[in-house]
Structures are given as structure tokens and as C-alpha cells.
């Protein structure tokens, strides 16, 4: 299952995609776009602080790669990838707020409410979320029906039944002890929903059949499960300098994670099992799906 | 310009529309919809607290009436009207937060962060905003192109270049003195953008020509200007029991309004001028636009 030889090349590929996404996001957050022209410069700066200059850009990469598997170009996928990243970043800006996780540091930099102020951070998050739907709707390289499907799915996966709902359940976990099943549900919503969207977006925007949508969606759910397990494991084993954010927070707050409940050996075994399931799902697509396979291994076995 | 005889009938019509919208919103916020099934019940309750049971529902009414002017039914317009109201309500939930206007009372009831908690209010607002775009995208009675145009326009008018941007400028006004031009720009964004969207949504969803979109948009901007002037005037002259919210807040915070700068007589004259402009804009549509004319008079001359 170890894949140390392939990792450097994969990480280069991921880094190149992230650099492209940075440019797409810079253009999407420029002062002269159809969606943003006339916006107050300070609010735009806060949005840029929250969305630019950091992160692995895993979600955009998944959108690009799931689109490529069905023949759609990175260029056609870019507005959807950028929209998803705007939503991911808005959620970080709001999660970091004093009333939520109260974090001062994100990717080694001050969080938006620390660099600006709390009200501006709320509004910058709101505006990033709002922008995302406009970016999908105006993606003129995509058929109208695909754009509408993507807006609907994104609304569901980012909203009360998806990421926002998962965050609400996570907050509830600070005052009550969740069962393993409840933890799994919370994480499937909080982390899994956007990753499932990322993987499913490819076949949707490429006009692939429903059966492919289902396979890619399940693949995205697996990525979500692996991502969260690896994240919780790193929260226990890594240090803040390596991660660029605070660690040991879950434990300090009494939040139970599956690695904390089941132990590190169980967690590593579960991660291997998830990678095997992802590889099995992707087998019918042959060599073309190699990057998605590597993505699963990267997410499960990453060290930062 | 006075229109006291027509008002009771108009207010009945507005009330009937509000009652219909309450039902549409109840259905949109039910636990078993495509967009929300599986959402945590407490978060849904907070969303309902923020969106149901109150308000004049002026924005949905404008969507319905501007759609009717071009032959579209209230049923076809309903999802767009509901989406717009979700966005209006999300903005109230976030504006009421301690880091923003810090209000305990809204429509005579506790604000969402008082009835629930601050984190839940942030997430409920986020989720209402997210839901709105899904509601427009899934409005299957409307042509795909109309839905996409509406998502794009709503993203612009609700985002950094519209309502959220106006709110950011309003916050800045607490620490710096705005010029009259800056106040006008802030209010055109904060209040005007969603009302302009409401009026322009009708011709868009009914597939009317671009020229009609422009007329209705200008009408919506006038409604926005009149709404804000009347609101600021009421903030100076009415009492909290009549309005169901705190009054005199702007003055207490040192925020300048146009009525405060120019006086009540100037304000009443300006309101009459705006109503006359709205009537002139709508003249080509004849009798069919009578409700929109009455709406302008209602907004300008309301007493609560």
C-alpha cells in the first residue's frame, strides 16, 4: 500500500494545480468582474485574505481530475473548482470566528477576523459563499443543465444538510458526547459533503452517465472519510509548525474523534481499507484514473 | 400624492401575498426536501426562526408583481421570491449578531442568536443563503437560461458588490463620517440591491425583453431609495412598539442618515419625488402596473 516512489511526482502535480487555481481565484476576486465590480475594496481584501495564498487546493484538484476522467478540460472545470474553493474558504473564515472555533491562526497567518475584524470576517465569508454560486452560473463553457445541476448539488452539500449542518453537529459535540455513529455522520457532513461534491462535479460537468456520477460520488465520500481520519490522526501526532495551525485542539475541548476512541493502529488499518476501496471503485477506468488513485493514497497517508 | 383610500385594499393584497409566501417558505424549510433532507433539526429550527413568522414580505411581493406584469404566474415566481426572502432573512440574522448591530429583538421576537446561540445563528444565516441558490436552480417551471440569469444576478446583488458590500460600508460608517454621496452609495447597496433584484426578477423569469428589465430595475432602485428614506424617517419619528424593533439606534451610534442631515421636510419631498418617478416609469404599462404604483406609494408613505 506504501507509495513513496510516486509521491513526489503526485505532489508536484497537486502543487501545479494549486498554482493554477490561485490564478483563477485571483481573477475571480478581482475588482473588475461582472459579479464584484463596485465592491468595497476592504471587503474584497478580506475575501482575498480568506481565499488566496494557501492550502493544498485539494477540492479544486479533485474537480479537475474527476472532470478529466470524463474528457472535460481543466479550463472547463475551473469555474466550478474555484466556486468550490470559495465555499471551502468561506467555511474556514466562519469556523475560525470567536463564536465558533475561535482560532487566531490559519495556514500560518492571522485568521480573517484577526487580520481585519469580526464583522468583516462574517461579511467576507458571506460574500465568498455568495460569489461561489455566481461563478458556477456564469461558467459559459458548460451546458446550462450541467450548471443548474451543479448549483443545486452545491447548495445541498454546502448547506444545512451538508457542510453547515455538519458544523452545527460538531458544535453540539462540545456539550454532549457523540456516539461513534454520530461522529461518523457529523464528519460525513462537515468534511465529506464538499469532497463528495468535488468528485461528483466532474461527471456532471462532463455530461457523463448517472452510473459514473454514483461511482465518483462514492469515491468522494471515501476521500472524505480518509481525509478526516488522517486529519484527526495528525491532530494527535503532528506539531503546530508542521501543520501551520494549532494541534491537540479536539482533545483539549473534550471532542472525541474516531482515532481517539479506536486508537492509531485501528485508524491506520481503516485508512488502508479505504484506499483499497477507492482503488477497487476506480478499477474499471484503468490507467486514466491513476491520479485519482494517487489522490486517495495521498489523502490517507499524508504527514501534514 | 396622498392615497389613503387605496391603502387598505393594497395592504390586504400585500398581506395575502405574505401569507402565501409563509407557506412557500414553510415548504422550502421542511425536513424532507431534496435540498434539506438529513439536516440537523436544531439548525433547521434556527433557520425557520429567522425566516418564518414575520415581516411584510415586500421583496417576494415585488417579485410576484413584477412577474405578473409580464404574464408570469405567482406560482412560477414563487421559488425565486422565496429564495430572495431567504437571502433577506439571512442578512437580518447576521446583521443582528453581536459583532454587527448586536440586536436582541427582531419583529418583536428574540433574534436568532438570542433564541439559540451565536454560532447557530451564524450557521443558520449561512444555510439560508446557501439554500436560496438551490431554490432558484431547482425552479423547474422556469427556463434554464432564466434560472441561470437569476442565480448570477442574485449572486451579484447579495454579495460584495451588493447587500454584503453595503453592510460593510455601513459598519465603516460607525468609525468615520460618510459624505451624502457615500451614504447614498452605501444604502443603494445595502437596501437597494435586493429590491432592484426583486423588481428585475419579474421580467427575467417571464422572458421579457431587455428594455423591460431596465425599466423594472430602475423602478426597484427607486423603491430601494424610498424604502431607506422612509425607514430612516421612521427611526426618528416612530416608537419601538409600533415598529417591533429598537428605534433611534442610528442616532445613538452617531450614524448619519439623509433625513438627519437634510431634515424631515426635505425627506418627505424627496419621497414624493421618488413616487412620481416610479409612476412615470410605469406609465407605459397602464392599468396593469397599478399594484406596482401602489407599492411605491406604500413604501414611501408607510407609518410602520
TrEMBL record, chains A, B:
What protein is this chain from? Answer: Probable farnesyl diphosphate synthase
Q: Which domain of life is it from?
A: Bacteria
InterPro entries according to UniProt: Isoprenoid_synthase_dom_sf, Polyprenyl_synt, Polyprenyl_synt_CS, Prenyl_diphosphate_synthase
Q: Which CDD domains match?
A: Trans_IPPS_HT (cd00685)
Q: Does the keyword Metal-binding apply?
A: yes
**Per its Swiss-Prot or TrEMBL entry, what cofactor is needed?**
Mg(2+)
One example of the protein's molecular function in GO is: metal ion binding
List, alphabetically, the PANTHER family matched. Answer: FARNESYL DIPHOSPHATE SYNTHASE
**Pfam families associated with the record:** polyprenyl_synt (PF00348)
